[in-house]
């Protein structure tokens, strides 16, 4: 019995170690989390301080807490105009990406035709073509189309550059749908379009939610494209508004921090609420 206990005990410790993981992994993870969260906390807390407090003790806590900076920003009409512009751009981009990406992915996943693999490879290659590389010809194209200083000049390119990621995520989802379901729908008299609207949309909800969240956050945080396309302050999105506000109130550091924290708060909350959806959608894409 003693020999058996001596053999079982190390195995039990090994199982417990595998269950909880290595302490080194947890330490590294906590360090990375701290590195990511610390700047955000500094910006948010800095908005509750005065310029004198920031100058005297840059890393200190507010004493006392000042809510005037946030009240001033929230009472500004310019801030809400920029919030509205960002919301319009992000919402339209998300709708366009989801609708077009879902239709393209359905064709690539469920139809058999010559050149399907080349088309899918073309979308995959789009992942290696960032908007930074194409900003100059894109600027010329938007200018020739007469879309300068309009949200449409930002929305359409954002949809185009978000489609590769959308297709790469959605195609495995749609391929994983069993052919037996489509055959049963065909026996019931449903065509391909009916099968798409009645079955595919419901089964692809995790992937659709994932690409929608990624498109919304990407559009909300977009800075380079609006910087080139939008020059009228009435059309500014929040990232451009942060830059303009920080330039105008460069000596008022506390108010700039308050404006910055309010600008990033919607996207941050949106991501925190739906982060499980993103992970679940990407996991389903890999399995598919």
Uncertain residue ranges: 1-8
Kindly name the structural category: mainly alpha
- State the end-to-end distance: 49 Å
Radius of gyration: 25 Å
Mean pLDDT: 83
Taking the sheet with the most strands, its summary is: none
What is the chain-wise order of helices and strands? HHHHHHHHHHHHHH
Work out the helicity level.
Answer: over 70%
The shape, in one word, is: globular
Instruction: List the total number of helices.
Output: 14
- Strand fraction equals under 5%
Key structural traits:
disordered N terminus, mainly alpha, single chain, 288 residues
Describe the structure.
The structure is a single chain. With 288 residues, the protein is an all-alpha fold. It has 14 helices and no strands. It has helices at residues 2-20, 23-46, 51-56, 68-74, 77-110, 116-126, 135-144, 152-175, 179-187, 192-203, 205-220, 224-229, 238-248, 253-287. The longest helix is centred in the C-terminal third of the chain and has 35 residues, at 253-287. Residues 1-8 have low confidence and may be disordered.
Secondary structure: elements and pairs:
Blueprint lengths: L1 H19 L2 H24 L4 H6 L11 H7 L2 H34 L5 H11 L8 H10 L7 H24 L3 H9 L4 H12 L1 H16 L3 H6 L8 H11 L4 H35 L1
Helix pairs in contact: 2-14, 4-14, 5-8, 5-11, 6-8, 8-11, 8-14, 11-14, 13-14
